[in-house]
Amino acid sequence: MDTQTLIYLFVGVTFALYIGIALWTRAGSTGEYYVAGKGVHPVLNGMATGADWMSAASFISMAGIISFVGLDGGVYLMGWTGGYVLLAMCLAPYLRKFGKFTVPEFVGERYYSQTARVVAVICVIFISFTYVAGQMRGVGIVFSRYLEVDINTGVVIGMAIVFFYSVLGGMKGITYTQVAQYCVMIFAYMIPAIFISMMLTGNPIPQLGFGGTLDGTDTYLLDKLNGLSTELGFNTYTDGTKSTIDVFFITMALMVGTAGLPHVIVRFFTTPTVRDARKSAGYALLFIAILYTTAPAVAAFARTNLLTSIPNVSYAEVPSWFKTWEKAGLIAWQDKNQDGVIQYTAGAPFEGAPTFAKDAGVNGERAVTNAPTANGNELYIDRDIMVLANPEIANLPGWVIALIAAGGLAAALSTAAGLLLVISTSISHDLLKSNLMPNISEKNELLAARIAAGVAVVIAGLFGIYPPAFVAQVVAFAFGLAAASFFPAIVMGIFSKTMNREGAVAGMIVGLVFTFTYIVYFKFINPAAGADQWWFGISPEGIGTLGMIFNFVVSVVVAKLTSAPPAHIQDLVESIRIPRGAGGAVAH
Amino acid sequence: MSIHKQDVPAAYWKENLSLMLKLLAIWFVVSFGCGILFVDALNNIQFFGYPLGFWFSQQGSIYAFVGLIFFYVWKMNQLDRKYDVHEE
Q1: Is residue B23 within 8 angstroms of chain A, CB to CB?
Q2: Do A289 and B58 touch (CB under 8 A)?
Q3: Do residues A227 and A343 both lie within one domain?
Q4: Which residues from B are below 8 Å from A574, CB to CB?
Q5: Which of A150, A251, A394, A584 has the largest CB neighbor count within 10 A?
Q6: Which residues, at least 6 apart from A532, have a Cβ–Cβ distance to it below 8 Å?
């Protein structure tokens, strides 16, 4: 079978599997729809959390980003895993003991305030839509690259699939499809990584090959890579270029943001016991760590491959994958000095993303019409190809390429479904049931949740088809806002008996407004303002950490000045600290 | 030694906090310490094929995180039983 047929086959089979699981796990009650009836085994919940957490960005883009920045890539590796330690120790067991359905529900009850609950709902919706827009776009891109359908058609197909299993199955359907998606995703990621590790270092385990010697020599892979990098005018791979304070703040914002993201937190509401919620956080991180410790190895392998096979090679002699991805528009070469040889060094080769001319250049390359920059670099490489082109670089068979396509879709769909569920439950449960229509029957609440999920799918799809120009810019928002709003409010709600309504609401508002303003100012209002104008040298990506600190400080000060929470709230805090007595889904 | 009924939650909570703070200290040292603040100094030390600081940033800290959570799970299960607050 040719590769194209295999891709259709793999994607078709995995989609059929997801739909089959959704039919098998239909949700019949709000408890099943919101939290899968609190009956998910911790290992399965760990896998589902892994799939929920690892998005198209983790699967497709992360290794590529690390590949281009070396040591500084640790920001993402540590930032997107370290939050699980906070989740396991500071949030998950207590929120599971609390035993309700949503994050705004906890905020609202602990702070005995509908205002707090509504602020939380707004944050949930904003954070989740920001995130889901990127996922739908990711689905479209995978479709257009591998299945040769138009991006918009791809988005519509993705929407239809997600609509089907999230609306029908709710949390229960999503959980079990995510388990399947995790397996597809991790298999698709590991197979090419193992082959490339074998090819370069002779060691089948990428994590070991990463620190090993190149096959048949005594030279360590990383030493070779550092040598190649400096020789060509790049920074040493194992040294950083970002300032220490910025790296510190970004990593902290990503970690705390992870622990504050509602679609991640809500996964720990689904386990049968408090003990399982803790264990489940461990399994979740274990399953995530398999991909996250492989990604930097893939990054270093791909970088080494690239730097040995492309620079100073004449265009006529480049490997075939180079031309494949040049055709796809992800690689572009502008022969600035007209010697027919590819010069690759630090700096952008030309202004912006490549726009291709109709006619081929003198060497047969796809000529670009962009204005060249003054530096000597002639090569444009999209970061995504570090994962996407790996199977071809390693000469792997067609089914591996098909697997990557199915894996990329699994990563994007699983995250999108988790986010859509959070949006739908905050609307049906936190807005309708608790605020606007308290007398709504369970059946109608479930219907409302399904309608909300359906509407959210359509809005997310529209974001995917007509991506607002700011989508790429706003990832910082999701993490920064989660770090500056939810995390402090929840942590203080558990660890402080004296934290009251006034303190928590004031803290959340200060954290949110500060973080929001800083990001909007430096990303949109005055993007020209460079690093020299950042507060203490902290980039917008890392400012959530400062927002979190402000939130904590303001909350504590305001709580000191206002009256203590009522006795029944202090009893509630006492009770969530003790595991015994966590029942099944609370009917209400 | 018998534990008085009303002291149980307070003592349990105190021991839980002390365990949590110790583990979070390790969490901080392996990531923010070894992987960020002291990364340049540690990079002068070779660890197999890795500069040590780079290893902490891209591999070691993640392994440590996984270990920390499972250790916490194990200790907390013991603690729950010790204070008789575990679930049936």
Answers
A1: yes
A2: no
A3: no
A4: 9
A5: A251
A6: none
Q: Cβ contacts (< 8 Å) between A292 and chain B: which residues?
A: 62
Question: What are the chain B neighbours of A71 within 8 Å (beta carbons)?
Answer: 39, 53-54, 57-58
Residues of chain A with pLDDT under 70: 468-476, 583-588
A333 forms bridges with which residues in the sheet?
A379
* B38 has a chain A CB within 8 A of its CB: no
Q: Which ipTM score applies to this complex?
A: 0.94
In this predicted structure, what is the pLDDT of residue A144?
77
A445-492 tens-digit pLDDT: 888 888 998 899 898 888 878 776 555 556 667 888 899 998 999 999
Residue located via tokens 């408090």: A274
Do both A298 and A346 map to the same domain? Answer: no
Q: Which of B40, B58, B70 is the closest to A74 by Cβ?
A: B58
Query: Binning pLDDT at 50, 70 and 90, where does residue B14 land?
Result: very high
Please give the residue range of the domain that contains residue A374. 331-381
Q: Find the helix packing angle between A486-495 and A244-260, rounded to 10°.
A: 70
A293 with B12: Cβ contact below 8 A: no
Q: What integer pLDDT is reported at residue A585 of this predicted model?
A: 46
The answer to whether residues A232 and A286 belong to one domain is yes
CATH number (domain holding residue A65):
1.20.1730.10
Joined tokens for residue A1: 């079978």
Residue where a domain terminates, one of A381, A412, A441: A381
For strand A379-381 and strand B46-47, is the pairing parallel, antiparallel, or unpaired?
Answer: unpaired
**8 Å CB contact of B54 and A71:** yes
Residues A73, B24: C-beta atoms closer than 8 Å: no
Q: How many residues does chain A have?
A: 588
| B33 in contact with A, Cβ within 8 Å | no
The reported pLDDT for the residue numbered A588 is 40
Shared domain for A377 and A410, answered yes or no, is: no
Chain B positions touching A96 (Cβ under 8 A) are none
List, in sequence order, every beta strand (DSSP E) within A125-175. Answer: none
Q: A273 and A338 in one domain?
A: no
A221: nearest CA partner in chain B: B49
In the three-class reduction of DSSP (H, G, I as helix; E, B as strand; rest coil), residue A588 is classed as coil
- Distance CA(A94)–CA(B55), nearest Å, equals 33
Q: What is the pLDDT of residue A562?
A: 94
A120 and A190 co-located in one domain: yes
Pick among B65, B79, B86 to test the A interface (most A CBs inside 10 A): B65
Please tell me the distance from the alpha carbon of residue B50 to that of residue B58, in angstroms, as a whole number: 10
Q: How far is B66 from chain A (nearest CA, A)?
A: 6
Is residue A84 included in any domain, yes or no? Answer: yes
Whether residue A33 sits in one domain with residue A137: yes
Same-domain status, A286 and A375: no
Last residue of a domain, one of A381, A408, A439: A381
Domain count, chain A: 2
